[in-house]
Each structure stands twice: as C-alpha cells, then as structure tokens.
C-alpha cells in the first residue's frame, strides 16, 4: 500500500507499507486446506502429505480463485487425485470469502496503517489505483469502497491499469527516464521514492540505532556522532541493518565494516561520525569517520541485497444467444442459492455479535444493580440494536417514551465547555449559556459510571462531579451530558 501526493509532472512516494507475509498464495492455501478436508471427509483419505496431489490441487485452486473474481460459482474437478479417487467440489464466492475473511481484514489493516503513518484522512484520498492480481477479488474491492465511502458517497476504484502489469509499466517509465530515451512527456516526469524499511546500525546491547526512518523520501543523507563503548578501544564496528524491530538480530543484515587507526581513548571521548547516504536508486553508502584524525571507512550496499482469438469470441456469442433462456434460469437459481448462503453466513456473524453483546450487558447488570429506570431502558435499547430484525424489539422505554440519541440537557456557564468522552469539545455547547455545568460521562473499565466533568476555558481547570446518581442519557462513549442537579453539580 503506497500513498503518493500527485503534483504536475511530480510523483512523490510519501509512504509505503505492506505485509510481506500476505499475498495471493495465502488465499489459494485457504481453499487448498478446505478441499483437503472435504476429500478426507468423503474418502477417509488424507492427501496433505502427498506433494504431487497437493500441487495439482493448488493449481486448480488458483484457477478457481481467478474464476470467482468474475462469476459467483465454479467447480473443481480432479480425476484420480489420490489412490484412484476423484475430487469433485463446487466452490462459491461466498465460501471463498468466508475462508479468507481474516486475510481480507489484514489487507484493510494495511490500508489503515498507511493512512495513519501518512497522517491523512480517507476523505483526502482522491484516487485509488489497484495494483496486483489479488485486487481483482470482488471482496477486496468492496472493502476498499466501504472504507473510503464518506457520507454515503462511494469512492470508485481506478481499474484502468492492468494490475498484473502495473509494476512493469512503472519500471519501463523509470528506465526511459534514466536512459533518456523516452519522449518529452516521460522525460519531464520525476518520481521521488521512499525507503520501504528503516535503515540503521547496531548500537550498544544489539539495539537498532535508526538513522533513516521508514518512508523517508530519497535521495537523502543523514549522519550521527557516535563514540566507543569501552576504554582504549582501537576499532569501531559498523553493522548495517534494515527493519523495524528494536533488536538488530530481528532485522535484516545488510553489511559491515571496521574503522581502525584512531587513538585509543577513554570510552565516549572519540567522536565518530556515521553517515548514511541513499541515492535516488536506493543504493546506500555508509561512511564512518573519526573527526580527530580524519580516518574514514565506507561500504556501499546496492539493490541486489491470455485472450480469446476471433473465432472463439464468435462461438461464444452464438452460444450465448442459443442458450439464453437456460442461462437465465440457471442464473436465477444460482442467485437464490448464493443469497441463502450469504444470509446464512451473515446470520452466523450476527449471532456471534449478539452473544458478545448479551455477555457485556449481563456484566453491566452485575455492576449496576441499583441503576435507575432510564438507565435500564437505555441498555435495553443498546442491546436491541443487535436485534433489529426481531419483531419483538422496540426502542421505547417502559414508560412508552423513546430514548433519544442525544438528550437535551442544559448548557454550561460562560467560560466552560462540554467535552465528549474522547476529549473533544462538544461544539453545540462551546459558547455556554445559563444553567448548571455539564460534561461527558466517565465510567471505569467494568462499565460502572463514576461521574461527569467540564473544563473551564479561562483557567483550564477540570471539574469532576464524583460519584453520581444514574439518569437517562445519550449514547455513553460518544458524548453525553448531566442534567442540572445531578452528579453533585
């Protein structure tokens, strides 16, 4: 996942994050493991230890993955897969999505991480370019659309570039720029890349001393004054690593050299300047220089460390007309089947969430046996959100009055503001008005309510009400307010 601010004739690679342990083969493996279990249950035979059978199965699973990007169902057929036994298994897109649900979420976690490191909001992203074959997976595309949807406006994905060829296109453009053989438009382009991992050297105790942090724009040059670890040290070892771990043993070793010839002095006295110089191609030159004698040593680390033919197209057009009615019927049947399967998976997920919500509510009840009617009504409404399809569910309180999303409480006095529970100012109460002070509700880790607070803008003091009585309120955890006279105000 990369974030590139786009200026005319300038592409700046500002942030680049990824998961080197996640790729298309991981999706294949999930389907392979599922079908190994299917074969075991049907034939009472285990093929997990047979390399030849697994290779055939993995190849078919990869094909099935690609087919499921354009259709909702396919079938894996393998004759004589193991000991003369065949494998015949239908695979739906819904099943594929279920098998890889956690991997899809890991993909989205990577996107979130990139936005976080770049310190940008999703609303600031103007275009999403898909690169890599796995971006063809419909579920991945849907999750991306959902993530970048703002106020009901869906962000469309850029699919104009072949995701399998995007890297080759970029390499070709960069080669044209470097060789000077491209046209004028290409020659005027400037690509500024970033370091994919942090660069540093080993410090005392095997700790990684980072000199060039990850996502630093290149070319770049950084330096740091170091010294010896013990008295009368006659040499200084420089071990270069890249990675994000604290200990160098957990990072990737790039190279090392030894600086010799400087005067033996008490530890900490020699001044050795360590310089990391990275050019536009990512080639790293590391230099260590003794400032007293001018002696230096350096090391250079480079970067070593199908389509249908016309006849087939015409035949497919003829067949589509010939079997149109049959295809429509089959399409409706498959659609109904997939709808049922998707609904079943959704219901299973909802059941898990309901179970978690019920457990949380029971724990809250144990902690709040003496709560007021309004509070019990609110918790019932909160739990009822998970049961919106339940015809017996109602969001009304015992008195028949609906509990509003935002309760209407009185504003704080002038000079005071109400805080949401995340610490932000509740803008509707910024200017203050007559009435008692009010503020966000505070509760401990077990869910027990402790009190409310307000902040005085004049002297930045905080008033905490202490233990408070329970009262009807708005959604706790988003922002809610105390009524006049409650909570010790």
Can you describe what's shown?
The structure is a single chain. The protein has 489 residues and is an alpha+beta fold. It is built from ten helices and 21 strands. A four-stranded antiparallel beta sheet has the order 11-10-13-14, with no helix packed on it. Strand 19 and strand 20 form a beta hairpin. Helix 1 crosses helix 2 and helix 3 packs parallel to helix 9. The chain is extended, with a radius of gyration of 32 Å. The C terminus is likely disordered.
Keywords:
alpha+beta, 489 residues, four-stranded antiparallel sheet, Substrate Binding Domain Of DNAk, Chain A, domain 1, 33% helix, extended, single chain
CATH topology of one domain, by name, is Substrate Binding Domain Of DNAk, Chain A, domain 1
Low-pLDDT stretches are 306-310, 390-414, 429-489
User: What is the total tally of β strands?
Assistant: 21
Q: How much is the average pLDDT?
A: 73
Largest sheet: 4 strands, antiparallel
CA radius of gyration: 32 Å
Structural class: alpha+beta
GO cellular component, one term: cytoplasm
InterPro entries: ATPase_NBD, Heat_shock_70_CS, HSP70_C_sf, HSP70_peptide-bd_sf, Hsp_70_fam
GO molecular function: ATP binding; ATP hydrolysis activity; ATP-dependent protein folding chaperone; heat shock protein binding; protein folding chaperone
Keywords: ATP-binding, Nucleotide-binding
């Amino acid at each position: 996942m990369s974030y590139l601010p786009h200026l005319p004739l300038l592409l700046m690679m500002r942030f680049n994050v990824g998961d080197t342990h996640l790729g298309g083969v991981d999706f294949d493996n999930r389907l392979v493991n599922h079908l190994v279990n299917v074969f075991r249950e049907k034939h009472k035979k285990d093929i997990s230890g047979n390399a030849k059978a697994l290779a055939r199965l993995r190849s078919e699973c990869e094909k099935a993955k690609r087919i499921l990007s354009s259709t909702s169902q396919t079938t894996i057929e393998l004759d004589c897969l193991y000991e003369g036994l065949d494998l015949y298994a239908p695979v739906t897109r819904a099943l594929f999505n279920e098998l890889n649900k956690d991997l899809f979420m890991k993909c989205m976690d990577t996107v979130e991480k990139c936005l976080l490191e770049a310190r940008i909001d999703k609303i600031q992203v103007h275009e999403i370019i898909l690169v890599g074959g796995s971006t063809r997976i419909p579920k991945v595309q849907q999750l991306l659309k959902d993530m970048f949807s703002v106020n009901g406006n869906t962000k469309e994905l850029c699919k104009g570039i072949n995701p399998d060829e995007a890297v080759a296109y970029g390499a070709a453009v960069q080669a044209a720029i470097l060789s000077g053989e491209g046209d004028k438009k290409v020659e005027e382009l400037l690509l500024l890349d970033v370091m994919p991992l942090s660069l540093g050297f080993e410090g005392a105790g095997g700790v990684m001393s980072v000199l060039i942090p990850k996502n630093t724009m290149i070319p770049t040059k950084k330096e740091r004054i170091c010294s010896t670890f013990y008295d009368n040290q006659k040499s200084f070892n420089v071990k270069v690593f890249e990675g994000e771990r604290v200990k160098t043993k957990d990072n990737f070793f790039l190279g090392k050299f030894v600086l010799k010839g400087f005067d033996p002095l008490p530890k900490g006295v020699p001044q050795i300047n360590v310089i990391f110089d990275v050019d536009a191609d990512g080639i790293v030159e590391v230099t260590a220089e003794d400032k007293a004698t001018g002696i230096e040593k350096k090391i250079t680390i480079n970067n070593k460390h199908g389509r249908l033919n016309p006849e087939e197209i015409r035949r497919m057009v003829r067949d589509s007309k010939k079997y149109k009615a049959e295809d429509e019927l089959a399409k409706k049947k498959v659609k109904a089947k997939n709808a049922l399967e998707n609904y079943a998976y959704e219901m299973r997920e909802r059941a898990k969430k309901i179970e978690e919500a019920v457990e949380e509510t029971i724990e809250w009840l144990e902690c709040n046996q003496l709560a007021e009617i309004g509070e019990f009504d609110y918790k019932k409404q909160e739990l009822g959100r998970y049961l919106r399809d339940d015809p017996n569910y109602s969001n009304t309180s015992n008195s028949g009055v609906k509990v509003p999303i935002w309760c209407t409480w009185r504003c704080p006095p002038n000079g005071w503001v109400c805080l949401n529970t995340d610490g932000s100012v509740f803008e509707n109460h910024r200017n203050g008005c007559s009435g008692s002070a009010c503020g966000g509700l505070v509760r401990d880790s077990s869910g027990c309510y402790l009190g409310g607070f307000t902040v005085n803008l004049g002297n930045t003091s905080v008033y905490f009400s202490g233990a408070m009585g329970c009262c009807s309120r708005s959604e706790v955890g988003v922002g809610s307010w105390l009524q006049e006279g409650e909570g010790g105000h």
